[in-house]
Amino acid sequence: MDYFAQQLINGLVLGSIYGLIAIGYTMVYGIVGMINFAHGDIFMIGGFIALITFLILVSFGLTAIPLILLVVLLVSMAITALYGWTVERIAYRPLRHSFRLAPMLSAIGMSFVLTNYSQVAQGARVKPVPPIITGGYTLHEGAGGFVVQLSNIQIIVVITTVVLLALFTWLVSSTRLGRDMRACEQDQTMAALLGVDVDRTISMTFVIGAALAAVAGMMYLLYYGLVDFFMGFVAGIKAFTAAVLGGIGSLPGAMLGGLAIGLIETFWSAYFSVEYKDVAAFSILIVVLIFLPTGLLGRPEVEKV
Amino acid sequence: MQASRAPGIAFIFKKALISALVALVLFSLMIGVRTEAGPQGLLVYETRFGDLAAMVAAVFGGSIVVELLRQWWGPVGTIRVVPPQVTSTLAVAGRWVAPVLLVFTFLVPVIFYDQRYILDLGILVLTYVMLGWGLNVVVGLAGLLDLGYVAFYAVGAYSYALLATNFGLSFWVCLPLAGILAAFWGVLLGFPVLRLRGDYLAIVTLAFGEIIRLVIINWQSLTGGPNGVSGIPRPTLFGIPLDNSDNGLAALLRIEFSPTHRIVFLFYLILALALLTNWVTIRLRRLPIGRAWEALREDEVACRALGINTTTTKLTAFATGAMFGGFAGAFFATRQGFISPESFTFQESALVLAIVVLGGMGSQLGVALAALAMIGGFELFRGLDQFRMLVFGMAMVLLMIWRPRGLIGHRAPTVFLERNQAISSDLVKEGHG
Amino acid sequence: MSSDHILFVDHLSMRFGGIVAVNELSFGAERRKITALIGPNGAGKTTVFNCITGFYKPTSGAMRLTHDDGHTIQLGSLNDFRISKQAKVARTFQNIRLFPGMTALENLMVAQHNALMRASGLTLLGLIGAPSWRAAEKNAIDLARTWLERVDLLDRADDAAGNLPYGDQRRLEIARAMCTEPALLCLDEPAAGLNARESASLSELLLSIRAEQGTSILLIEHDMSVVMEISDHVVVMDYGVKIAEGTPQHVRDDPKVIAAYLGADEEEAIAVMESGT
What pTM, to 2 d.p., does this model score? Predict the structure, then answer.
């Protein structure tokens, strides 16, 4: 039971990170109807920028951890958001009204560019950092000596996710930008006729998605204590899996899907085998899509005849 | 009007300045700072402001060049009037491209007999031509987006490798088996994903490709895991080995043995396999099954209303494409003599898909040209080493922006009464599956 | 049920969530006759079509199809492609669904898929180019040529379907449906968007199909001149229920029909009242 509780905590934390990335996929898919294959790499870039900012701040002699974290968060979000904007501007905007496969291949190409760009710029080796946030709480001490722990970093990941999600839900439901985004999702031509700046709205979608991915990247760095240039690929596929699982286009669905994938992966590793955890995550995707083709919270697609 | 058509120097500079500023922010930390493991294992960093400045300057200069080119070229989307003589000349030339290319390919081993590098490159290009033609059945004809094609390539390669090393079966027995096994896996994948459409299908096939790769890595007792399978037998000319033994081909023909014999043999082997793929595909297009594939790409609902079983139609497309992938995989295994999971990553799937899309969906000649351009171009950048994938990714983005519908943008009808005229790609659908 | 019905729709209901699109609808379509299904927009006509042709599964009710040999098929028990393959029901669509990137001829060849699949020995005979396959292919092209001639599109045979003018596309879609050699042809607004001359030639085509092929026809139509001219029997729907049926003359004079159309659309009501005069 204790072991189960511990895995539940770990799974929820991992799921929060996946959920943050998945929101970027789901938003872009909702608004331009394409899989932003480079989004996983945007997450990776976010992790790298958080790492570098952190190193610089520490070398300047800053010691106040909360201040460091805040600066790292803001810098990482800002620069990564610009990456998101640039990717859209270069690789997707020229192909917006083109054939369906062209933007997808362009996105795959962009993903290769970003992966290898950070490999060239920062080297192929894994970049470890010492634990930045230590300590935590012991929730329960079992009879067999097994301890259920909730570390501070886990609390930070979950709280950050919840706060961002609340902020983001407010943004989409109650602001002008959110309304524009929803309008573009329904009908871009009509939205443009009604005075919505479609280009700007789509750009902002990519910017927000990238900023959330940057947060995920930073959380990943804090939680696992490492980043590498290839981490975007697998995390990206899993987050996309999460978005599809939750029902693509649905924001709560993305978060739900993220948590589900995080939990599945953690429990599979804990009870079956670590080697096959990714196989488990992908298999679940296939199984869910067979029985629930529109995901958990997606709108059923009515076939118009 | 004049001002908006040809913006002045000030405009160009302003644009370049903004690009440079964006580049400065983007590259500031990623290029301006380099992290490295320090003496105690802790990360340290060093600054590279010189590189950063150079990159920003390059973006500034590049932006000016791009803007000038754009002005010289005119706005995107202008319809350029091509004189009819030029179009007709091009059409005549186009008809000769395929036969000339084929004859040239046959002659490659004769012309470049002494140049091992060219022969190896030729074999590589032909392997991708074959993979492209195989995937073309699924993506180009049936309009089903498959991002996990490499899985069937892997199934074919491992089928041959394991059957040959464990049971001593010969290449010619294993080749059909590899194809059948890959087709079987194609059907196995096809069944669950039949109801999925578009990007859902794409992501599930991608997941399937990854699952196969992960299973190969982790099922060490069967596949050797990350270490792969080595000592895979080389192909024989129907039982006659191509080595310098007493019963080898050279000895039988009483000619001096040369390792090039085997390379030339491999070249013609993959050429034959690729041409078989091409022949079967062209043949299938003119049969009801092939027409049903294309109809499926055009409109699935209409297909159902005409009594076409869309389930079996999709499955046959998957199985046919997978079978060709399996053949190519078996060839890959026998050519390399060693295979490992590293050869079957998502990048391979993306590369083959890029070849199909760049070739112009459904066009056999286009796919061959695209494979030549992509693999050949990729080889050109071999010297660049770590920049290679970077350049490749950039090329993919630029090619898609330049020609979203591929090199050959029209479809040839499969049957005609009076006139065999090509159909503009603007009318041809891409499919939803 | 004294008359010879090829199709009998028995208490058909279709609900989408809380909306009742079709409610306990019963009517018959007579063999070798043209039956029209009319009604104001949103009356549920296309929903009935989608149930008959297997695209929707009705909430309740039955649809019986009786072939010339007396063999009866419950359409509700068949799904999508089997309706066309086994029950021999062909249909066209309100928004034309041709294969735009294929030529007119290719469209008609695709329609003969099932027959050609058998002839090609499930592809194997075709792959080796067996003589029996070559003969079957030639026959298929001849059938397609015949239909292209019937719909006056022989000179456009090698043009992409997506390049044809609207009226030609409508006729090609009918030809394509006929190439499946159906017992019952269901046409969803075949005259929509056609001018008067094209409508007249459409009427002629449908009458000739009934006379020469003996195909029973069920059509949804808003163009009252077509309905009144060619229909043997008219069924009027409103809000998912049948409000009248009978001969065109009978229906035209029915006050309930006029009221339904008046309530919905004045112009259509006038069209109903004035048509046939």
Answer: 0.87
